[in-house]
Design goal:
Blueprint lengths: L2 H17 L14 E3 L3 E3 L2 E3 L10 E3 L7 H6 L8 H12 L10 H5 L2 H4 L9 E2 L5 E2 L1 H12 L10 H12 L15 H11 L10 H5 L6 E2 L2 E2 L10 E3 L4 E3 L1 H11 L10 H12 L10 E3 L1
Helix pairs in contact: 3-7, 8-11
The structure holds heme C (2 copies).
The site of one heme C has 25 residues, from helix 9, helix 10 and helix 11.
Protein backbone atom coordinates (compact mmCIF):
# COMPACT_ATOMS: atom_id res chain seq x y z
CA UNK A 1 0.00 0.00 0.00
CA UNK A 2 1.43 3.38 -0.95
CA UNK A 3 1.90 6.06 1.67
CA UNK A 4 -0.83 8.09 -0.01
CA UNK A 5 -3.34 5.22 0.20
CA UNK A 6 -2.55 4.42 3.78
CA UNK A 7 -2.95 8.09 4.69
CA UNK A 8 -6.32 8.20 2.96
CA UNK A 9 -7.35 5.11 4.80
CA UNK A 10 -6.38 6.64 8.13
CA UNK A 11 -8.28 9.78 7.22
CA UNK A 12 -11.38 7.80 6.24
CA UNK A 13 -11.24 5.77 9.44
CA UNK A 14 -10.73 8.86 11.60
CA UNK A 15 -13.66 10.51 9.87
CA UNK A 16 -15.97 7.51 10.34
CA UNK A 17 -14.98 7.36 14.00
CA UNK A 18 -15.79 11.05 14.40
CA UNK A 19 -19.07 10.99 12.55
CA UNK A 20 -20.34 7.79 14.06
CA UNK A 21 -19.37 8.98 17.51
CA UNK A 22 -21.80 9.82 20.28
CA UNK A 23 -25.40 10.77 19.81
CA UNK A 24 -28.20 9.58 17.58
CA UNK A 25 -26.93 8.61 14.13
CA UNK A 26 -29.25 10.88 12.22
CA UNK A 27 -31.25 13.90 13.23
CA UNK A 28 -32.42 16.58 10.87
CA UNK A 29 -33.09 20.24 11.55
CA UNK A 30 -35.62 20.98 14.31
CA UNK A 31 -39.25 21.52 13.42
CA UNK A 32 -39.36 25.03 14.83
CA UNK A 33 -39.88 28.61 13.71
CA UNK A 34 -37.74 31.53 14.87
CA UNK A 35 -40.01 34.33 16.02
CA UNK A 36 -38.07 36.92 18.02
CA UNK A 37 -39.81 38.86 20.80
CA UNK A 38 -43.09 37.37 19.54
CA UNK A 39 -42.77 39.86 16.75
CA UNK A 40 -40.12 39.32 14.05
CA UNK A 41 -40.25 36.03 12.13
CA UNK A 42 -36.89 35.05 10.68
CA UNK A 43 -36.55 32.63 7.77
CA UNK A 44 -34.33 29.76 8.94
CA UNK A 45 -35.00 27.29 6.11
CA UNK A 46 -35.32 28.02 2.41
CA UNK A 47 -34.84 26.43 -1.01
CA UNK A 48 -31.14 26.50 -1.94
CA UNK A 49 -29.87 29.15 -4.36
CA UNK A 50 -29.40 28.06 -8.00
CA UNK A 51 -25.60 28.03 -7.62
CA UNK A 52 -25.97 25.16 -5.13
CA UNK A 53 -27.60 22.85 -7.69
CA UNK A 54 -26.32 19.31 -7.15
CA UNK A 55 -24.97 20.26 -3.70
CA UNK A 56 -27.92 21.22 -1.48
CA UNK A 57 -31.67 21.26 -2.02
CA UNK A 58 -32.60 23.23 1.05
CA UNK A 59 -30.61 25.53 3.29
CA UNK A 60 -30.96 25.70 7.07
CA UNK A 61 -29.75 28.13 9.69
CA UNK A 62 -27.48 26.68 12.36
CA UNK A 63 -30.22 27.70 14.82
CA UNK A 64 -32.31 24.69 13.68
CA UNK A 65 -29.60 22.25 14.80
CA UNK A 66 -29.37 23.48 18.36
CA UNK A 67 -31.09 22.08 21.45
CA UNK A 68 -34.48 23.41 22.57
CA UNK A 69 -33.06 25.59 25.37
CA UNK A 70 -30.43 27.16 23.12
CA UNK A 71 -32.98 27.89 20.41
CA UNK A 72 -35.25 29.46 22.99
CA UNK A 73 -32.57 31.95 24.08
CA UNK A 74 -32.68 33.44 20.61
CA UNK A 75 -36.44 33.95 20.72
CA UNK A 76 -36.35 36.73 23.28
CA UNK A 77 -33.78 39.51 23.45
CA UNK A 78 -33.98 39.47 27.26
CA UNK A 79 -32.76 35.86 27.26
CA UNK A 80 -30.17 36.44 24.53
CA UNK A 81 -26.71 36.81 26.11
CA UNK A 82 -25.46 38.82 23.12
CA UNK A 83 -27.39 41.87 24.19
CA UNK A 84 -25.07 42.97 27.00
CA UNK A 85 -22.30 43.21 24.39
CA UNK A 86 -24.51 44.60 21.68
CA UNK A 87 -25.46 47.48 23.96
CA UNK A 88 -21.77 48.25 24.48
CA UNK A 89 -21.51 48.41 20.69
CA UNK A 90 -24.40 50.87 20.56
CA UNK A 91 -22.65 53.02 23.18
CA UNK A 92 -19.44 52.96 21.15
CA UNK A 93 -21.42 54.08 18.09
CA UNK A 94 -21.97 57.48 19.63
CA UNK A 95 -18.66 57.74 21.54
CA UNK A 96 -16.08 60.21 20.22
CA UNK A 97 -12.70 58.58 19.52
CA UNK A 98 -9.51 59.55 17.68
CA UNK A 99 -7.75 62.74 16.62
CA UNK A 100 -10.65 64.07 14.52
CA UNK A 101 -12.99 64.23 17.50
CA UNK A 102 -15.67 62.20 15.76
CA UNK A 103 -18.00 59.33 16.56
CA UNK A 104 -19.60 56.91 14.11
CA UNK A 105 -22.89 58.70 14.73
CA UNK A 106 -21.44 62.06 13.62
CA UNK A 107 -21.34 60.79 10.05
CA UNK A 108 -23.74 57.83 9.96
CA UNK A 109 -26.34 59.29 12.36
CA UNK A 110 -28.96 56.77 13.47
CA UNK A 111 -27.54 53.25 13.27
CA UNK A 112 -31.02 51.84 12.60
CA UNK A 113 -31.29 53.84 9.38
CA UNK A 114 -27.73 54.00 8.08
CA UNK A 115 -26.79 50.37 8.85
CA UNK A 116 -30.08 48.66 7.90
CA UNK A 117 -29.27 45.89 5.42
CA UNK A 118 -25.50 46.41 5.56
CA UNK A 119 -24.74 43.09 7.25
CA UNK A 120 -26.76 41.20 4.63
CA UNK A 121 -24.43 42.39 1.85
CA UNK A 122 -21.12 41.58 3.58
CA UNK A 123 -18.47 40.78 2.53
CA UNK A 124 -18.45 42.91 -0.62
CA UNK A 125 -16.11 44.57 -3.10
CA UNK A 126 -15.19 48.14 -2.15
CA UNK A 127 -14.61 51.11 -4.45
CA UNK A 128 -10.95 50.10 -4.95
CA UNK A 129 -11.85 46.58 -6.00
CA UNK A 130 -10.85 44.79 -2.77
CA UNK A 131 -13.11 42.30 -1.03
CA UNK A 132 -13.90 43.67 2.42
CA UNK A 133 -15.67 42.20 5.42
CA UNK A 134 -17.59 44.42 7.81
CA UNK A 135 -14.57 44.61 10.10
CA UNK A 136 -12.52 46.15 7.26
CA UNK A 137 -15.10 48.88 6.68
CA UNK A 138 -15.21 49.68 10.38
CA UNK A 139 -11.43 49.92 10.66
CA UNK A 140 -11.23 52.02 7.49
CA UNK A 141 -13.58 54.54 9.09
CA UNK A 142 -11.68 54.44 12.36
CA UNK A 143 -8.21 54.90 10.91
CA UNK A 144 -8.88 57.08 7.83
CA UNK A 145 -11.92 59.07 8.93
CA UNK A 146 -11.65 59.32 12.72
CA UNK A 147 -7.91 59.26 13.29
CA UNK A 148 -8.47 56.42 15.75
CA UNK A 149 -6.64 53.13 16.13
CA UNK A 150 -7.77 50.08 14.24
CA UNK A 151 -9.56 47.50 16.37
CA UNK A 152 -8.17 43.97 16.34
CA UNK A 153 -10.40 41.63 14.32
CA UNK A 154 -11.48 39.54 17.28
CA UNK A 155 -11.33 42.24 19.96
CA UNK A 156 -14.34 42.85 22.19
CA UNK A 157 -14.69 46.39 20.73
CA UNK A 158 -14.90 45.04 17.20
CA UNK A 159 -17.32 42.24 18.04
CA UNK A 160 -19.57 44.56 20.03
CA UNK A 161 -19.74 46.88 17.03
CA UNK A 162 -20.35 44.15 14.43
CA UNK A 163 -23.13 42.84 16.68
CA UNK A 164 -24.75 46.27 16.92
CA UNK A 165 -24.53 46.76 13.15
CA UNK A 166 -25.70 43.20 12.35
CA UNK A 167 -28.81 43.63 14.47
CA UNK A 168 -29.94 46.38 12.09
CA UNK A 169 -30.29 43.71 9.36
CA UNK A 170 -32.26 41.27 11.49
CA UNK A 171 -34.93 39.58 9.39
CA UNK A 172 -33.44 40.76 6.08
CA UNK A 173 -32.45 38.17 3.47
CA UNK A 174 -28.78 37.39 2.84
CA UNK A 175 -27.97 39.50 -0.16
CA UNK A 176 -24.31 39.10 -1.14
CA UNK A 177 -23.14 39.88 -4.68
CA UNK A 178 -21.34 36.95 -6.29
CA UNK A 179 -21.13 38.24 -9.86
CA UNK A 180 -19.29 41.16 -11.48
CA UNK A 181 -16.22 42.23 -9.52
CA UNK A 182 -17.08 39.75 -6.73
CA UNK A 183 -17.01 36.68 -8.93
CA UNK A 184 -13.30 35.92 -8.88
CA UNK A 185 -13.24 36.18 -5.06
CA UNK A 186 -16.32 33.97 -4.83
CA UNK A 187 -14.71 31.30 -7.05
CA UNK A 188 -11.64 31.25 -4.80
CA UNK A 189 -13.81 30.93 -1.72
CA UNK A 190 -15.67 28.06 -3.34
CA UNK A 191 -12.45 26.27 -4.20
CA UNK A 192 -11.35 26.58 -0.60
CA UNK A 193 -14.67 25.24 0.68
CA UNK A 194 -14.13 22.00 -1.22
CA UNK A 195 -10.38 21.67 -0.47
CA UNK A 196 -9.39 19.00 2.03
CA UNK A 197 -7.27 20.31 4.87
CA UNK A 198 -5.06 18.90 7.57
CA UNK A 199 -4.18 15.48 8.84
CA UNK A 200 -7.84 14.50 8.67
CA UNK A 201 -7.99 15.60 5.02
CA UNK A 202 -11.42 17.07 5.42
CA UNK A 203 -13.03 19.95 3.58
CA UNK A 204 -15.74 22.25 4.87
CA UNK A 205 -18.10 20.36 2.57
CA UNK A 206 -17.23 16.96 4.11
CA UNK A 207 -18.77 18.10 7.36
CA UNK A 208 -21.26 20.83 6.47
CA UNK A 209 -22.58 19.57 3.12
CA UNK A 210 -22.19 15.77 3.25
CA UNK A 211 -22.88 15.28 6.95
CA UNK A 212 -25.14 18.02 8.29
CA UNK A 213 -27.75 16.45 10.55
CA UNK A 214 -25.24 13.82 11.70
CA UNK A 215 -23.48 13.97 15.01
CA UNK A 216 -19.74 14.45 15.15
CA UNK A 217 -18.61 13.51 18.61
CA UNK A 218 -21.27 15.30 20.69
CA UNK A 219 -21.91 18.06 18.13
CA UNK A 220 -24.97 18.13 15.93
CA UNK A 221 -23.55 19.21 12.58
CA UNK A 222 -25.25 22.11 10.85
CA UNK A 223 -24.65 23.40 7.34
CA UNK A 224 -22.11 25.86 8.75
CA UNK A 225 -24.10 28.92 7.67
CA UNK A 226 -23.10 32.42 8.76
CA UNK A 227 -26.50 34.18 8.70
CA UNK A 228 -26.65 33.98 12.53
CA UNK A 229 -23.28 35.69 13.08
CA UNK A 230 -21.79 37.13 15.15
CA UNK A 231 -22.95 34.46 17.62
CA UNK A 232 -22.70 34.12 21.38
CA UNK A 233 -21.11 30.79 22.33
CA UNK A 234 -22.18 29.48 25.70
CA UNK A 235 -19.06 27.30 25.84
CA UNK A 236 -16.77 30.34 25.52
CA UNK A 237 -19.07 32.74 27.43
CA UNK A 238 -18.45 35.23 24.67
CA UNK A 239 -19.17 36.51 21.20
CA UNK A 240 -17.53 34.75 18.25
CA UNK A 241 -16.86 36.34 14.86
CA UNK A 242 -17.24 34.55 11.53
CA UNK A 243 -13.49 34.26 10.96
CA UNK A 244 -12.95 33.10 14.53
CA UNK A 245 -15.36 30.23 13.85
CA UNK A 246 -13.52 29.41 10.60
CA UNK A 247 -10.23 29.25 12.55
CA UNK A 248 -11.80 26.75 14.96
CA UNK A 249 -13.14 24.55 12.18
CA UNK A 250 -9.89 24.48 10.22
CA UNK A 251 -8.00 23.70 13.40
CA UNK A 252 -10.35 20.76 14.02
CA UNK A 253 -9.04 19.17 10.83
CA UNK A 254 -5.59 19.45 12.43
CA UNK A 255 -4.43 21.87 9.75
CA UNK A 256 -2.46 25.09 9.97
CA UNK A 257 -5.11 27.74 9.81
CA UNK A 258 -5.36 31.11 8.10
CA UNK A 259 -5.61 34.19 10.29
CA UNK A 260 -8.84 36.01 11.07
CA UNK A 261 -8.97 38.89 8.60
CA UNK A 262 -6.85 37.12 5.97
CA UNK A 263 -7.69 37.41 2.29
CA UNK A 264 -8.41 33.66 2.26
CA UNK A 265 -11.01 33.96 4.99
CA UNK A 266 -12.68 36.97 3.33
CA UNK A 267 -13.10 34.91 0.18
CA UNK A 268 -14.31 31.92 2.16
CA UNK A 269 -16.72 34.20 4.03
CA UNK A 270 -18.19 35.42 0.73
CA UNK A 271 -18.69 31.90 -0.54
CA UNK A 272 -20.16 30.63 2.74
CA UNK A 273 -22.46 33.67 2.96
CA UNK A 274 -23.68 32.94 -0.58
CA UNK A 275 -24.64 29.41 0.47
CA UNK A 276 -27.10 31.07 2.84
CA UNK A 277 -29.00 33.03 0.20
CA UNK A 278 -32.70 32.65 1.02
CA UNK A 279 -32.01 32.64 4.77
CA UNK A 280 -32.35 35.80 6.82
CA UNK A 281 -29.88 37.60 9.06
CA UNK A 282 -30.40 36.74 12.73
CA UNK A 283 -28.11 39.48 14.01
CA UNK A 284 -27.29 37.82 17.26
CA UNK A 285 -27.27 34.02 17.21
CA UNK A 286 -26.80 31.81 20.28
CA UNK A 287 -24.81 28.61 20.03
CA UNK A 288 -23.66 25.96 22.53
C1 LIG B 1 -16.07 61.12 9.02
C2 LIG B 1 -17.27 60.34 8.68
C3 LIG B 1 -17.33 58.90 9.15
C4 LIG B 1 -17.13 58.41 10.42
C5 LIG B 1 -16.74 59.17 11.66
C6 LIG B 1 -17.41 56.99 10.33
N1 LIG B 1 -17.74 56.65 9.07
FE1 LIG B 1 -18.26 54.80 8.44
N2 LIG B 1 -18.36 55.47 6.51
C7 LIG B 1 -18.18 56.79 6.13
C8 LIG B 1 -18.23 56.87 4.70
C9 LIG B 1 -18.08 58.13 3.85
C10 LIG B 1 -18.44 55.53 4.24
C11 LIG B 1 -18.50 55.04 2.82
C12 LIG B 1 -19.86 55.13 2.32
C13 LIG B 1 -19.89 54.53 0.94
O1 LIG B 1 -18.89 54.56 0.26
O2 LIG B 1 -20.93 53.98 0.62
C14 LIG B 1 -18.54 54.70 5.42
C15 LIG B 1 -18.80 53.36 5.38
C16 LIG B 1 -19.03 52.56 6.51
C17 LIG B 1 -19.49 51.20 6.47
C18 LIG B 1 -19.84 50.40 5.24
C19 LIG B 1 -21.28 50.71 4.92
C20 LIG B 1 -21.75 50.10 3.63
O3 LIG B 1 -22.94 50.19 3.35
O4 LIG B 1 -20.93 49.55 2.89
C21 LIG B 1 -19.57 50.78 7.76
C22 LIG B 1 -20.00 49.40 8.25
C23 LIG B 1 -19.15 51.88 8.59
N3 LIG B 1 -18.85 52.93 7.81
C24 LIG B 1 -19.09 51.84 9.96
C25 LIG B 1 -18.60 52.87 10.74
C26 LIG B 1 -18.37 52.77 12.17
C27 LIG B 1 -18.69 51.56 13.02
C28 LIG B 1 -17.87 53.97 12.58
C29 LIG B 1 -17.41 54.34 13.97
C30 LIG B 1 -16.43 53.44 14.59
C31 LIG B 1 -17.78 54.82 11.40
N4 LIG B 1 -18.22 54.12 10.32
C32 LIG B 1 -17.33 56.12 11.41
C33 LIG B 1 -17.98 57.86 6.96
C34 LIG B 1 -17.71 57.79 8.32
C1 LIG C 1 -14.59 17.93 11.09
C2 LIG C 1 -15.84 18.55 10.75
C3 LIG C 1 -15.82 20.01 10.38
C4 LIG C 1 -15.16 20.60 9.34
C5 LIG C 1 -14.21 19.95 8.36
C6 LIG C 1 -15.57 21.98 9.35
N1 LIG C 1 -16.44 22.23 10.35
FE1 LIG C 1 -17.47 23.93 10.68
N2 LIG C 1 -18.32 23.12 12.32
C7 LIG C 1 -18.12 21.84 12.78
C8 LIG C 1 -18.87 21.64 14.00
C9 LIG C 1 -18.91 20.37 14.83
C10 LIG C 1 -19.54 22.84 14.26
C11 LIG C 1 -20.50 23.17 15.42
C12 LIG C 1 -21.85 22.56 15.12
C13 LIG C 1 -22.42 23.09 13.83
O1 LIG C 1 -22.99 24.20 13.77
O2 LIG C 1 -22.25 22.41 12.80
C14 LIG C 1 -19.20 23.75 13.17
C15 LIG C 1 -19.70 25.02 13.04
C16 LIG C 1 -19.45 25.87 11.97
C17 LIG C 1 -20.05 27.16 11.79
C18 LIG C 1 -21.04 27.82 12.73
C19 LIG C 1 -22.48 27.61 12.27
C20 LIG C 1 -23.48 28.19 13.20
O3 LIG C 1 -24.62 28.40 12.76
O4 LIG C 1 -23.16 28.43 14.38
C21 LIG C 1 -19.55 27.68 10.63
C22 LIG C 1 -19.86 29.02 10.02
C23 LIG C 1 -18.62 26.70 10.09
N3 LIG C 1 -18.60 25.61 10.92
C24 LIG C 1 -17.91 26.85 8.92
C25 LIG C 1 -16.96 25.94 8.46
C26 LIG C 1 -16.10 26.18 7.33
C27 LIG C 1 -16.13 27.42 6.46
C28 LIG C 1 -15.30 25.08 7.20
C29 LIG C 1 -14.15 24.86 6.24
C30 LIG C 1 -13.02 25.73 6.44
C31 LIG C 1 -15.68 24.16 8.25
N4 LIG C 1 -16.68 24.73 9.01
C32 LIG C 1 -15.12 22.90 8.43
C33 LIG C 1 -17.35 20.87 12.18
C34 LIG C 1 -16.61 21.06 11.03
Amino acid sequence: MSLRNSRNKIAATAFAALVLGLGPALAGPADDTLVVNEDVTIVTRAPAAAHLDGHLKEVYSGWLFREDETRKMQKDDFDNPNFVFLEQGLDAWSAVDGSEGKSCANCHEDIADSMAGVRATMPKVNAKGDLWSMEDYINDCRTNRMGAEAWKWNSADMKNMTLAISLQSRGMPVNVAIDGPAQAFWEKGKEMYYTRFGQLEMSCANCHEDNFGNYIRADHLSQGQVNGFPVYRLKDSGVVSIHQRFVGCVRDTRAETFAAGSQEFRELELYVASRGMGLEIEGAGVRP
